[in-house]
Amino acid sequence: MKTVKKELSVTVTATFTAEPLRDSLEFWAEKLGLSLNLEFTALNTVFRQLLDPASKVRQNNGVNFILIRFDDWCRIEEGFENQTASQLITEAKVKRNIDEFVNAMSLAIRQSSGSYIVCINPMSPNFDEINFAELEQLLIGRLNEINGVYPVASSELFEYYPIDDYYDSYTDKIGHMPYKQSYYDVLGTLLFRKLYSLVSLPYKVIVLDCDNTLWKGVWAEGGKKNTYVDESRLFLQRMMLKQYEAGVLLCLCSKNDEKDIEAAFKELDNMVLKPEHFAATRINWQAKSKNIKSLAQQLELGLDSFIFIDDSKAECMEVSYNCPQVLALCLPENDSHIPQYLLNIWAFDRTAITQTDKNRTELYMQNSRRRELQEQAASFEDFLNSLELKVCIGGLESADIQRAHQLSMRVNQFNFTGQRYTEGELAAICASDGEYALAVKASDRFGDYGLIGLMICKADKDMLMLENFMLSCRAFCKGIEHAMLAELGKFALRQNKHSVKVSFAKTEKNRLSLDFLLLLADILKPVQMPPDAYIFSSDVLSRINYNDFASSCKSEQTAPAKESFEKNTCEPANTEIIEQIAKELNTAEKIHTEVVKRNHVKIGRRAEYAAPRNEIEQAVAEIWEQVLEIEKVGINDGLFELGGESIKAIQILSRVREKFDTDISLAVLFEGEITVAKLAQAAQESILGSYDEETLAKELAAIENLTEEELEELLKVQV
Prior knowledge:
By secondary structure, this protein is α/β, with parallel strands linked by helices. The chain folds into four domains: 198 residues, Rossmann fold (3-Layer(aba) Sandwich), CATH 3.40.50; 146 residues, HAD superfamily/HAD-like (Rossmann fold, 3-Layer(aba) Sandwich), CATH 3.40.50.1000; 169 residues, Aminopeptidase (3-Layer(aba) Sandwich); 116 residues, ACP-like (Non-ribosomal Peptide Synthetase Peptidyl Carrier Protein, Chain A). The chain contains 31 helices and 18 strands. The protein starts with a strand and ends with a helix.
């Protein structure tokens, strides 16, 4: 996966204490080479952050994480923290908060350009009197209607990273920290997955092997008798079907005879994937890298848009060597590990699915029929005339913002500047007086292309500035790009702008755009040529005639695009890190362990080491070592000198309470310096304080019956 941004501004606001997420988020940023400017807002200020134009969230043009727990809404709202769940939590209260939250979210997204990832977290086990699943789906459904908001259900976290022991009632009570650190670490992982998907260029094609990949066994060696779809392959097929429904093109590539593969699809039981799900196939005995290059040409997509899945390490190595841009994934040898492996391939993550995604395979089938028509036509002009092409250009509508954002993330070759736009940024442009987003839709005799182009521009004195121009490659070289510029010239004239400045920036993939602009400049003769731009007369631009370009279009502009499908012009896929995550960082326990390893605490001046003197001090010291992730803590070491802070202090207090099954007053954290000895003494006093008079009397009686030697040994333990 390739990110379009290396530096990100991230703000976290939550209904509960969220700061324990920091270690996990910073771990993933470091691992994946991103720089995070990470900020946390004050506890339970979600509504203020959304409503106040000056808040951290509203001022952040990057990504905002909003974390919700339903019981926090009611508990903080009422201000009574000691009431029972039945008194506090009612569905009416939660539904009212959902309404208010959605309204605040809608306002924020209209008036800011950041992206919002809203994650719903599990309630505490005590609050079991409401239908959590129903209310969660209600909120997610409402949020799905808002462009630029990406809701995350709590079930997603448990699907990816099953974790049972996640709730901490004590830290929830004293610090509004309802979860154990292991939960915060996997929550941070899930949030980072969402963020990474949001800022990464998506893969567009998955190429699948057949034998021992889609099914268990080799069909040619025994047919149905020795071949079947086991649970792991069934999981794989269902997951690939979800990818298909999300707009990813599926292809087959297998060293086999076509008749054998056709028979397998026809005769095998439990096959979820059908022949109609595949946009193209390569069933032959050629090298798979050669077949993938052939598929790239047919689909007119770059090799870095491809994922290849096979059970053979040798085949994956061959593809990686000859097509380094392709993400080649080798299934685990242990079949039972396949589901967990696939769930943790981040390249499969999708933040949103549009109607165009759902129809993507059909759109490429339509394109195949267009190519057939072109091959049969007597000339290129006859082909265009027979297409019956219709182009509609107008202001970007709210309903199309999600698709426009997706287009900006997917279009690489015909993208004048390479600029990407979030849904929030596009919504802000649409709402602006001086900025404009012009959407391009098209249809022809074979079907509807959908939204396939976008122009972003703004007014500047007597000039219209074209900040970006993008067009899907499946629509290129049909005159649509010329119609777009002609309409831009007319739009400029309607705005009383006499010239149009067309900006461009060279990227590793947009050579096609530059070639088009050079041809445009050669024919239209720009009035000025400042650095990285052409300035054209609005009137001249408005009268562009495609016939002036038709002779050059086919010969000069399609060739670079075809070359780019094969050439290794892009950086290699980061297969190693993606596979490492899928195999080594795929459980809550493994993630927590790695986050702890990475978190090297900055230690201040330490007291001279003094060993624990009794069992209680030893246990407390060990808890400090675990929470602070350092070794050899002495009884006189101060918490803050060891790099601790208030969040760590609360976690330590919770573990001490759990270890000795006793309540320790929160006041101990605020009565001077916190040391192991002091906390151990507080624990010992709390234990003694929990005994009643009868129990103490029995203990004293037992002590009186001890011999002198036994008493001496007891005192050694307690000193």
